[in-house]
Amino acid sequence: MVGLPQLTSGFDLVERLDLSMHLKVHGPLEPLGGEQLAKLAEAINLKGRGGAGFPFHKKLRSVTEAAIKRGVRPVVVVNGSESDPSCRKDTVLINRAPHLILDGALLVAEALGARTLVVGVTRESTQRSMEAALAERGLSNSRRSALRASVQRNPVRMVTGSAASLIRSIDGGPAIPPGRKVSASQSGVGGAPTLLSNAETFAQLAIAARIGRERYGNTGLYDEPGTVMLTVSGAVARPMVIEVPTGVPLRYVLQLAGAPPVPQGVLTGGYHGKWIDAATVNEAIVSRNSLDAVGGALGAGAILPISQETCPLGEALQVAKWLAEESAGQCGPCYLGLPAAARGLEDILNGGGPAALETLKQVARNVKRRGACSHPDGSAMFLESMIKVFTDDLAAHVLGNGCGRPVEGVLPLFEGGRTSTGIPGGAEATEEDDSSRQKIYVDWTLCRGHGLCADILPEVFELGADGFPTVTQAQVPRYAEAKALHAVGRCPALALRIEEGTRAQDSSRNNLPVLSQGRRAREKR
After folding, report:
1. In the chain, at which end, N or C, are there fewer CB atoms within 10 A of the end residue's CB?
2. CA distances from 428 to 88, 95, 303, 425 (A)
3. CA-based angle 243:111:224, to the nearest 5?
4. Contact present, 110 and 31 (Cβ < 8 Å)
């Protein structure tokens, strides 16, 4: 923590704040009316901390108006589905301060008169922590409860982190975007107006409700008060999740993490974010407006420098390939465009010359604003900012024989296998990811379009307009292995089969960031 902790208060005392310790550290919280809450969020300029940055007060008022107009109870959803490998701040908050997030969510639920609260997660550790927190408060999904509260666990995939994917999975469908853009504030879970926001956003709201707008505004910038949770990884000696006041110089945060004194570039906002160059780093401060002004992005709060000793195009290519693999496969710009973009970047590295560069630029332009979700837009932004920032390196590859530097793989990725946050005390112990060794295959010579596979295994199968599955093969999520076997056994045409593969192990370079505890950064990995 830089300065006095707010969200991370008590982290230097215990590994996880249960309800009793949470109340000792933060104190009780009085309920607020809907308009009071909206005015508070507006006064502190609270915006979503998951990447989109939508003003919270507008979302709150929109849900209120929709619920009153339709005469239905709204739903509150906390999105803790962190599926970008470069981000871990929400995982840290859910594992260590789940009740602070619940404080904000329950404030909103009471103000809206909601009777349903759902917390979306993608990891076993966050599921355990949040389910324990609900139990500590006596909340459950029982029909007899005044507020039905539950945790929705989805696979770790880039597209599962979107609001539309989470809502679809809560409604019993697969955790992928529905292919059409609908405002959750108007029609979300079960068709009801739904207030969905990121886990850190609810925690920030709980802090502001406790200390008031004036005290909250005493920290950070005048126009963006408060603190920000950042995940700092990449070419750093001490990967960390750290809470900082807005207005702190970005170079200072990088120094704390042990980044190179003069990084070649810094990726800001995660893998749907933007690159900035070394000169720009010295101008930037930690704030949404400042990073936007210098061509970067606060996004989901990920900061990833790379050193002068690595090839930035090669580093970006590994991410581009991963982003292409994370496609939901529902639209051409994503399913076809992102692999084409990755191939274009690979052609540049393989000596494709100016033609390869023009192809990459054209593909990146073509996928934007044409997809069924924001995944192609974010991926294109990542690639276009790379082209803009690393001009010298591009010139070396396009006009010469390359830059001569190796690819060190400093940008973290999920490769199957095991990942670990390295958080002291085991708040998130080393755990298996959600991919299993099983792949399920459709034999099209046998398939007759009965559709039972989609009913039994919606995590994998979706039926097209013709009534047939839309995939030929797919990895089975680990938690759905039993359902996959059931789907194979129930297929009337015997068109499904499962084959066992292997899961590669993550290398040490992909270890997840560690937490900065209390007022000093612990240098543990």
Report:
1. C
2. 11, 7, 21, 8
3. 30
4. yes
Over the range 450-463, which residues count as b (16 or more CB within 10 Å of their CB) and which as e?
beebbebbbbbbbb
253 vs 245: CA distance, rounded Å:
11
In the block, tokens 């089969």 appear at: 497
Task: Give, in degrees to the nearest 5, the angle at Cα 304 between 303 and 308.
Answer: 140
What pLDDT score was predicted for residue 260? 92
Q: How many residues does the chain have?
A: 525
Query: pLDDT by residue (tens digit) across 353-405?
Result: 999 999 899 988 888 877 778 888 999 999 999 999 999 999 999 998 889 99
Q: Is 368 helix (H, G, I), strand (E, B) or coil?
A: coil
Beta strands 148-153 and 194-198, pairing class: unpaired
Rounded Cα gap, residues 350 and 344, in angstroms? 10
Question: How is the beta sheet containing 194-198 ordered, strand by strand?
Answer: 148-153, 116-121, 75-79, 194-198
What the block records as the tokens of 3 is 């300065």
Cβ-based neighbours of 32, under 8 Å, separated by 6 or more: 40, 107, 111, 209
Taking CA 409 as the corner, what is the angle to CA 382 and CA 418, rounded to the nearest 5 degrees?
100
Q: The domain at 312-399 falls in which architecture?
A: Up-down Bundle (1.20)
- 431-500 is a CATH 3.30.43.10 domain: no
Residue 148 near residue 114, CB atoms below 8 Å: no
d(C-alpha 524, C-alpha 431), whole Å: 18
User: Are residues 247 and 287 in contact, defined by beta-carbon separation less than 8 angstroms?
Assistant: yes
Strand partners, 441: 473, 497
CATH topology of domain 19-211: Rossmann fold (3.40.50)
Delimiting residues of CATH 3.40.50.11540 domain(s) in the chain = 19-211
Tokens found for residue 496: 């499904």
Every domain range in the chain assigned CATH 1.20.1440.230: 312-399
Pick the CATH number of 230-308 from 3.10.20.600, 3.90.330.10, 1.20.1270.50, 3.40.50.300: 3.10.20.600
Q: Are 231 and 268 in contact (CB under 8 A)?
A: no
For residue 134, the Cα-to-chain-centroid distance in whole angstroms is 22
| C-alpha span between 335 and 325 (Å, rounded) | 9
From the list 182, 126, 180, 131, the residue with the least C-alpha distance to 154 is 126
Least-confidence region, from 44-53, 146-155, 511-520:
511-520
pLDDT at position 211? 95
> Which residue ranges does the chain devote to CATH 3.10.20.600?
230-308
Q: List all residues 6 or more positions away from 211 whose beta carbon is below 8 Å from its beta carbon.
A: none
Q: Report the run of H or E that residue 229 belongs to, with start and end.
A: strand 227-232
- Residue 305, classed as helix, strand or coil, is strand
Per-residue confidence (pLDDT) for residue 480, from 0 to 100: 73
